[in-house]
Write a structure and sequence with these properties.
Blueprint (H helix, E strand, L loop, with lengths): L9 H4 L1 H13 L8 H35 L6 H17 L3 H26 L14 H4 L8
């Protein structure tokens, strides 16, 4: 006898429709009908995604600021554009107090990763860059550019 696979849930076939359904159930107070397991998985994944995005944008911003500071003769409008776009995207993400706290928590590690990236892209040795992050989160989100 041939076994048939169980039917796929709406969560697996149309995530947007499933999200709309879950939101509608919450709005109506029909909490017993919520797909709790899938909703918990989805919300956890969203939080992880947001944290990954914050850390990734921090690394890119920091690497470009380091290149800007340590290779003044090679500065380009492309570098400036990347700095501006990463700052703007980070500002939007960091409207969340939780993500702002997370950004502060991972700033030092992001800086270490950015130094490695900047060294690889510039050909400069890692020792040419400051050992600790010279920027605060508020400074990173400002319109300032490092001198050098």
């Amino acid at each position: 006898m041939k076994e048939t696979a169980p039917p796929l849930s709406l969560y697996e076939t149309d995530e947007t429709a499933w999200l709309e359904m879950m939101a509608d159930l919450v709005a109506q107070g029909r909490f017993r009908e919520i797909d709790r397991e899938a909703l918990a998985e989805y919300l956890t994944d969203m939080a992880k995604r947001d944290k990954r995005e914050v850390k990734s944008r921090l690394k890119v911003l920091l690497a470009h600021l380091l290149k800007w500071q340590h290779q003044p003769r090679r500065r380009t409008n492309s570098w400036r554009g990347t700095i501006v776009s990463q700052r703007n995207e980070l500002k939007d993400l960091l409207d969340s107090r939780t993500l702002r706290k997370y950004a502060n928590d991972v700033l030092a590690q992001s800086y270490t990763d950015a130094v490695e990236q900047a060294a690889a892209e510039t050909g400069l040795s890692i020792e040419k860059f400051p050992g600790a992050c010279p920027y605060t989160l508020d400074w990173l989100l400002s319109k300032n550019l490092p001198t050098g």
